[in-house]
Amino acid sequence: MSNATARTIRENPQASASKIEAMARCDPDAALQHPNCPVELWWALAANHGMEAPSSPAGQLFLLEAPERWAVLERENIQRWISMAWQILRKTQRYMLVAECAERVLPLYEREFPGDTRIREAINALRQWRLGIETQDGYRLEQAWLSSKCTAEAAAKEAALSSDSPAQGPSYSTADKITTSGQYAARDAAFVLCYDDSEEALHVAARAMGHAKHAERQRSAPAMFWDAQDDDPRKIEFMAAKFAEAKWQWMRIQQYRKEEPA
Q1: Phi, psi of 183 (to 5 degrees)
Q2: 228 with 112, same domain?
Q3: Is the CB of residue 83 less than 8 Å from the CB of residue 182?
Q4: Which residue range forms the structural domain that includes residue 47?
Q5: 114 and 236, same structural domain?
Q6: Which of 47, 73, 151, 243 has a Cα-to-Cα distance from 83 of 20 to 30 A?
Q7: 58 and 118 share a domain?
Q8: Residue 120 is assigned to a structural domain of this protein
Q9: Is 51:58 a contact under the CB 8 Å cutoff?
Q10: Count of domains observed in the chain
């Protein structure tokens, strides 16, 4: 399709479904934003455009008509949307969001380790570094962050050992270990900062929320392991809490993207 033809379709609000579908093959963004975008084409395009789809002209109507369908689409694609958007965020934005995620799960760590301020201090050091990175104090703030990060990593490894799981990361393979959901939540909460500005930090924070939800009933409840059946109420509850945290992360990523200069 030539640029002139595509422009004619974009500028015609009454363009036919077949023409919009043809344009979608070369310019899916334009097809998504077309006010006369066919409903099924819109849903297919929305799966790859989680940020733009809801505010598109046709999308606003489609979401009103089928909010439950959007809920399913979001659940199926939110991790992919996060991954795609994560690559676009600036480095400071990624670090600041990691700090936010770590702060949200910080109470899960401090509940198990009251009086231990190492993770909290590392979060503060990270924020101060990224906010002051371009100032004359940038180098000093970076060194303070690196020092705090080492201290936080030590706290994370100690939390992993106390929960009877390997210090190098999560282990859900052996259900015979005496390990509580509260301890797992604390361990994951402590590990968030260890991933720097990697997307993995967000996954670990969301997993911590899942364990915390399971621990709400009874703090010493045995941890939920991955060999549980999908219809196990504990696993359903765990996955729901994890998804809820991913939705919050996705919301914050969108807000960071909107802060970008035009």
Answers
A1: -70, -40
A2: yes
A3: no
A4: 3-65
A5: yes
A6: 151
A7: no
A8: yes
A9: no
A10: 2
Distance of CA 16 to CAs 13, 22, 30, 106, Å?
9, 10, 14, 53
Same domain, 122 and 223: yes
Per residue in 96-123, pLDDT (tens digit) is 999 999 999 999 999 989 999 999 999 9
pLDDT at 231: 79
Distance CA 56, CA 34 (A): 8
The pLDDT confidence band at residue 162, using thresholds 50, 70 and 90, is low
Do residues 127 and 99 touch, judged by C-beta distance below 8 A?
yes
172 has pLDDT over 50: no
Query: Are 165 and 186 in contact, with CB atoms under 8 Å apart?
Result: no
Same domain as 235, residue 125? yes
Looking at residue 183, its pLDDT comes to 83
Q: Are residues 45 and 111 in the same domain?
A: no
- Is the pLDDT at 210 greater than 60? The verdict is yes
Instruction: Identify whether 111 is part of a domain.
Output: yes
State yes or no: pLDDT of 89 exceeds 60: yes
Angle at 174 between CA 172 and CA 175, to 5 degrees: 95
